[in-house]
Write a structure and sequence with these properties.
Elements lengths: L12 H13 L4 H8 L3 H10 L6 H84 L1
Helix pairs in contact: 2-3
Length: 141
């Protein structure tokens, strides 16, 4: 697929205005502008210079180099922030897993306590009913 479809075509006023906006305001790279306009990087450089958006082509190269360095720094900062966030999330997940495990053991203890309490209350109610029936029978005699 040929991405340079506009090669050899005259520049329209709208295209030149768009070029100026992308270059001066948006700080797009020459590569980004070339892709958007479907023209070669060389034609973009030539047009930027002939329209006097820049006084010397060498300025473009130094600006592009600075943009690349800035993008690299942003990428590194973003990567470091992501690693930090992943570490924080991993730590939180570990804490949650420990908390769930503790809650699970507490629930097991409660259920065990409740079941032994039911057994002991059944035993004590049987004992008390026998005692009260014994007391009632002995009162009759």
């Amino acid at each position: 697929m040929n991405t340079l479809k506009r090669t050899g075509n005259r520049w329209t006023i709208n295209e030149i205005l768009s070029l100026q906006r992308e270059y001066e305001l948006l700080n797009w790279t020459i590569q980004q502008i070339a892709e958007k306009h479907q023209r070669s990087e060389r034609s973009i450089l030539f047009k930027v210079e002939t329209e006097e958006f820049v006084q010397d082509i060498k300025e473009i190269y130094s600006e592009q180099k600075q943009n690349i360095n800035n993008e690299d720094n942003i990428s590194l900062n973003f990567a470091e922030e992501n690693v930090t966030e992943v570490h924080k999330l991993s730590s939180r997940i570990w804490d949650l897993e420990n908390n769930v495990s503790e809650i699970s053991s507490m629930i097991k203890q409660l259920l065990e306590t409740k079941s032994t309490h039911k057994v002991s209350s059944k035993v004590s109610s049987k004992v008390s009913s026998k005692v009260s029936s014994n007391v009632s029978s002995s009162a009759i005699y």
